[in-house]
Amino acid sequence: MKVIKEDSGLMIVKHRNILFFIIAIFFVILGFGATFSPNFLISETTPLWFGLVFILSGFLALFSIKITTIRLDKSENKISILKKRIAGRQNLEEFPIENVKEIELTIDFSSSSDGKNSYSYQLYFVLNDGQNKELGQNVTSTNKPLNSIFSSQIKTGKRIADFLGVPFLERRPPTVQETLSTISKTIKDSIINARE
Question: Model-level pTM?
Answer without folding.
Answer: 0.67
